[in-house]
Amino acid sequence: MPSLHQYPLPYSVNLFITNLCNRKCPFCYLSDWVTNNQSAANHMNINAIRIVIRWLKRSRIEKVKLAGGEPMLHPNLIEIVNELVKNNIIVDGILTNGLGKSELYKEVADITGSNWLVNITKPNTYTNNEWKLLNENLELLRWKNENRSVKSYGFDATSLRHLCFSITFYQPNQEYKYIIELAKKYECPVIRYDVSRPSSIKNNAYIDSNLLAMKPVLMEFVKSCVNEGIKPGLDDALPLCIFTQKELMFLHLFSNFYTICLPHSDVMPDLSVEYCTSLRGIFPSYKVGDKTADQMFKELFQFANKYRVFQLEHCQNCYNYERRLCQGYCLRFKFDQLKKAKN
Questions:
Q1: Fewer beta carbons under 10 A from the terminal one: N or C of the chain?
Q2: Residue ranges of domains in the chain
């Protein structure tokens, strides 16, 4: 478990190549930024990608993840992917809702051999045609050649594409069994899960201090995944204090569990660089080329620490907080509490 004063070196960045999306998820932490309006959408153009590539090389970073919005809706996606691959930048992951054109998924998968993270909400949030398209694309992206000899080809060969599902919890009694059934159907080995965090202007459905109400559904979900041979992977950080010793032992054994958030740098279509998109307008913002990714991230990490060390009421006399093993909860939430305390 990392300490909140440890400084990690960035090895990858997230490229938010478009803010266009064909879904409207109530929990979206980018709800103030994404749009369903094609004419109002902002896309990262090919010249911007070339600037990013030069910056990545200067920063000695070889991996990116493509995000949005919905990256599969970018009008020049193939050109972008080819430019990255041509310059030996690995497209290490693509974050998608699975509702793009099937032929586009196939072409991008063939070019990149990338990992895919597919966010899936409950079935009644889709039309019949959308649900059919989603399942067609999951079949297309499922693991390939998983029975190949490790002795002959090594582990994680480029022909072995990884498919990971994602679920965000924003209601105490939230349905989740559908995503486990889909994971079994498409032999997906990992489901990423998280609790909804606020957008920069808090106009989404998110969980603030009422984490204890979320604990039952989170523990049920993790146990259900483990019972089916699926690894549940926590994204972002939760505080230790809402769990018992027995629950924490289970989470550490069967799910990667974090108490301190260490996000990657996010590059937006206008080439601004953010530490965490939900903290836009609060944390300093850079432009690609100002400094190397390592220099930017170091400064942003140090800036974030002043929020990490701010003590929430429930952190008083806490063993883990005093030893800097836990940050208390989401930094966006802690910013609001610090502002309230100052006032």
A1: C
A2: 12-342
